[in-house]
Amino acid sequence: MKFRFIYILLLSFAVQVGAQSGTNQWISYSQKYFKFPVTANGIYKITYNTLLNAGISVGVGGINPKSIQVFGRGEEQYIYVNGEEDDDFFDPSDYVLVYAQKNDGYFDAAMFKDPSNNPNPYYSIAIDTSYYFFTYNSLSSGNKRMNLDTDQGYTGYTASAYFNFETVQSFSDQYGPGKTTAIETYKPSYSAGEGWVGPTLFFDDNKSYSFSTPNYYASGGNGIIETTIVGLTNDGYHDPDHQLTISINDIVKKDTTYEGHEFLKFSFSLPSNEWASTSVIKFKSGGDQSFTSADRSAVGYIKVKYPHTFDFGNATAMEMEVLNGNTDKAFLVISNFNDQGGSTPWLFDLTGHYIRRVNKNANIFN
User: Fold this and answer.
1) In angstroms, rounded to a whole number, what is the distance separating the alpha carbons of residues 283 and 299?
2) To the nearest 10°, the Cα dihedral for 182, 245, 278, 105?
3) For 228-353, where are the alpha helices, taking DSSP H only?
4) For site-directed labelling of 205, which of 13, 56, 130, 192 has its Cα 20 to 30 A away?
5) Once rounded to an integer, what is the mean pLDDT over residues 258-273?
6) Distance between CA 316 and CA 37 in Å, rounded?
7) DSSP characters for 86-104?
């Protein structure tokens, strides 16, 4: 079984009243919705004062905390409501926690005939801010909740040695127009390779991008590097008209040619001995004079996924994928997490929908 956790300190925000329009099926027109912007992935905290300042009735005679819902990305979100089991009132000590994500290319995917044709799904074609909506209904049960996990029974469990960590370099230097028609006009529909990409890679040119992989766990298997490339020109006198070489730490991983405004995706599996503390991926264009000097291309994104020890390196937040084998839970011993002066950190299981407070002993968390 595979778990994905996020380990993060809490953020606060101000709720804004927002009018609703459109035909989204999640909207119930008998309810009021209060929107808040999200520009970074994380755990957001909605407090008593936040709701009070937004004009929402709280305290005795106010909203029932069991009736609270939060919507984002067109779906009801799993939330944790502290204090909802105490009574039917949202008291000053009550609060709501919700994991929210900034806008990326998830919504843009619907505009492509093949959703995988977006060259950069990590950067929205339109805007990087998403909006989530706080509301409440008349129900006292059935709304989505994160379950509070208080299980301390880890006798006989061996601490997990590593988790899978993922980091992305997403580029937005220019807009790739996508494929063209037979008469070299751009298609009105969204086509493969249309979206935000990096700076132009010219003929006989190269661009290098570095990335660090701190606390790499060598016994955790291979790491993965994924990237995309988009052709920005189409020379009618050459077919193919692009030549590309990709190397990682000076080891050539791909030497290929392609035509016109093609969109290509590559994935490379690297054993631990091919990684460096700071690795470099290099894209080289052309150089062979049999190809056109009009060769132009660009990189969409570079994603790196590798096995990471539970040394957090003074980070204040970490999103991780934990592989726990055939058991229903995992025992984690985390070091060097920056709790910013003693704040109680939380551990969110985003797949199983559990939340737990984390125990601290010196600089060790479990």
Assistant:
1) 9
2) 10
3) none
4) 192
5) 93
6) 22
7) T-SS--TT-EEEEEE----
pLDDT one-digit tens code per residue, 268-290: 999 999 999 899 999 999 766 55
pLDDT at 360: 73
H runs (alpha helix) in the chain: 48-53
CB 164 within 8 A of CB 323: yes
**Which residue, among 210, 142, 164, has the nearest Cα to 309 in the 3D structure?**
164
Cβ neighbour number for residue 70 with a 10 Å cutoff: 26
Return phi, psi of residue 110, to 5°: -70, -15
Q: Tell me the three state secondary structure of residue 117.
A: helix
Cα 5 from Cα 337, distance rounded (Å):
15
Q: Per-residue pLDDT for 230 more than 90? A: yes
* Cis peptide bond prior to 240, omega within 30° of 0: yes
Dist CA 333 CA 103 (whole Å): 32
* Separation of alpha carbons 234 and 254, rounded Å: 21
What is the rounded distance in angstroms from the CA atom of residue 183 to the CA atom of residue 61?
68
Between the alpha carbon of residue 343 and those of residues 10, 339, 360, the distances in Å are 9, 6, 10
**Token pair listed for 38:** 């999200």
Q: What is the pLDDT of residues 75-90, one digit of tens each?
A: 999 999 999 998 999 9
CB 187 within 8 Å of CB 180: yes
Residue at token pair 């370099």: 169
CA distance 23 to 276: 51
Tell me the CATH number of domain 163-308, given options 2.40.50.100, 2.60.120.260, 1.25.40.10, 2.40.40.20. 2.60.120.260
Whether the bond between 92 and the residue before it is cis, its omega within 30 degrees of 0, is no
Q: Using CB atoms within 10 A of its CB, is residue 95 exposed (0-12), middle (13-18) or buried (19+)?
A: buried
Residues 50, 14 contacting (CB under 8 angstroms): yes
DSSP track, 179-224 = -B-TTS-B-SSB-TTEEEE-S-EETTEEEEEEEE-TTB-GGG--EE
Q: Has residue 19 got a pLDDT over 60?
A: no
Count Cβ atoms below 10 Å from residue 198 Cβ, excluding itself: 26
Residue extents of the structural domains in the chain? 163-308
- Write down the pLDDT at residue 21: 43
